[in-house]
Amino acid sequence: MESSGPVEDLASDSEGAGALGSAPPGGRDSDPRRRIPRTDHLLEHPRVTAAGAALGPQVLRGIIRAVQDRARAGQIAPEEVLEQVLAAIGDRPAASLRPVLNATGVIVHTNLGRAPLSDAARQAMLEASGYTDVEFDLGTGARARRGAGARSALLAACPEAEDALVVNNGAAALLLATAALGGRGEIIISRGELIEIGAGFRLPDLIASTGARIREVGTTNRTHLADYTRALGPDTGAVLRIHTSNYRVIGFTSAVDVAELTGPCRESGVPLIADLGSGLLGPEPRLPEEPDLGSALRDGADLVIASGDKLLGGPQAGILLGRTEMIAQLARHPMARAVRADKLTLAALEATLTGPPPPVTGSLHADAGHLRDRTEALAQQIGGRVVPHDGRVGGGGGAEVPLPGWALALEEELAAPLRTGDPAVVGTLRGGELLLDLRCVPHTAQTQLAGAVEAARERLREQSRSGHDGDDRR
Ligand SMILES: *Cc1c(COP(=O)(O)O)cnc(C)c1O
After folding, report:
1. Whose CA is nearest to atom 12 of ligand 1?
2. How far apart are CA 301 and CA 239, in angstroms?
3. For ligand 1, what atom is nearest to the CA of residue 246?
4. pLDDT tens digits, one per residue of 247-265
């Protein structure tokens, strides 16, 4: 076998054979395993260092060893080791999270990382990723309030709030609010609002974990003002209204508005907290039922809670807006330090608020006619049927509100190779077909999507040629 230039450079000499240590009897010199490149030679090879610049030495060594093992087992020739190592490095990004084209039509998809960030937010995160003045006044050289920029942006976007605090996520915001304001007292909550937010996480359990006691009032479908006023007393720490963001109770129902609760809460000197979830800063015409932060504050809530990565369209964050003294009380609580937001979050949140509308807003407002044109253009490229398909807000709010649109119906068998392709594409299976909805696929990614479908079809053809139908990429 003839070896090419770089492989010759790498091929182990007699000391390399010693390193292998397990040459079989019967002629060491004829053993092809002697020609397997040595680990240290591979690690120093310019092509390996260039390709593996984002990987640490431990990971590179692991990749190299795995390829050498295949050569030792005779699965590849020693001369192929370098190229195989380079290929393995190429397939191995520094982090295992892979980009996904979300073709489900579900805008805030928790399993797919909720809100995709705006270009402005991505850029801001990159700029904040080194040393940055997150808690430092460059003018005076003194320590400063952490995340002042994100706070100002929130107050500008929601003028009804006197002050703001950003924490790790919505659940952390609720935890901090109930721990700091509820204290050792009771938190009054309607039985219709004791919700599970997903993957088995239940808000009542979260609240109870702070040591606060939950005082349930009303019934599952109906709670009246008198239920709250009867429960208010010396033991009350706070009254909490939770928006049932992921389900709806319809039929014979009633709930008490924030505005109605303010009077009794003020009289008793008890804070009124509203957990709204979605993070809409103001009313949203596409989602008339979805409560917004500004309106809840105007109606008299003392504190409102939301997530940053739902309809606000920003990074994972918990947003607390409300009265000065209440935000100060939260910021002073020891738990605030445990749930504080990091500099990347603060940078991305500020840029989301001050920049152009984020992708979530674009997807929410996507025009059905325009979606149809895009879907038909895709069908021209890759085939398939254009069918009506409703998008959804998803876990971020707007429960059960259909967002009229279109999808491309393709053969169901494409689902698995598309999911495991590069980029990964996730659609919806319905009635034996795979539906690809372009609502949440950026216009600029449409060519990539078409390419991914072609590549998935090619993989299916290869699989049927090699006579098995499973997915063998993983
Ligand atoms: C989503 C949601 C939460 C939890 O927020 P995370 O940011 O997911 O931690 C809490 N309350 C409501 C009403 C929600 O919709």
Report:
1. 277
2. 10
3. 15
4. 778 888 899 999 999 999 9
Look at ligand 1, atom 1, and give the residue with the nearest C-alpha: 277
Rounded Cα–Cα distance for residues 456 and 464 (Å) = 12
Calculate the dihedral angle through the C-alpha atoms of 424, 430, 432, 433, rounding to the nearest 10 degrees: -50
Asked if 355 contacts 344 with a C-beta cutoff of 8 angstroms, the reply is: no
pTM over 0.90: no
- Return the closest-CA partner of residue 305 out of 211, 167, 117, 210: 167
Residue type present at position 100? V
Task: Out of 168, 307, 309, 339, give the residue to mutate to test ligand 1, the one with the largest number of ligand atoms within 8 Å of its CB.
Answer: 307
**Residue 290: which H helix or E strand, with range?**
none
CA-to-CA separations, 264 to 122, 302, 375, 399, in angstroms, rounded: 44, 13, 53, 30
Residue 188: pLDDT band (50, 70, 90) is: very high
Is the backbone peptide bond immediately before 404 cis, with ω within 30 degrees of 0? Answer: no
Closest C-alpha to ligand 1, atom 11: 277
- Is there a contact between 341 and 147 (Cβ–Cβ < 8 Å)? yes
Residue pointed to by tokens 């950003």: 166
Closest CA to 279 of 317, 301, 303, 311: 311
Both tokens of 431, joined, read: 């009635």
How many angstroms is it from 344 CA to the middle of ligand 1? 20
Q: Report the candidate in 163, 149, 128 with the shortest Cα–Cα distance to residue 353.
A: 149
Over residues 149-161, mean pLDDT:
98
Q: What is the distance in A from the centroid of ligand 1 to the CA of 242?
A: 10
**Cα angle 213-216-219, degrees, rounded to a multiple of 5:** 170
E strand intervals along 182-301: 186-190, 196-198, 201-202, 213-217, 236-242, 272-277
Extract the tokens encoding 214: 């939950």
CA-based nearest residue to 407, from 442, 437, 445, 441: 437
From residue 379, give the alpha-carbon distance in Å to each of 385, 427, 452.
Answer: 7, 15, 14
Which amino acids bring their CB within 6 angstroms of ligand 1? 169-171, 174, 197, 242-243, 245, 275, 277, 307, 318
List 164's β-bridge partners, or say none: 321
Q: Which amino acid is at 120?
A: A
Cross-strand pairs, 319? 166, 306
Torsion sign over Cα 69, 72, 75, 79: positive
> What six digits make up the tokens of 291?
């409560």
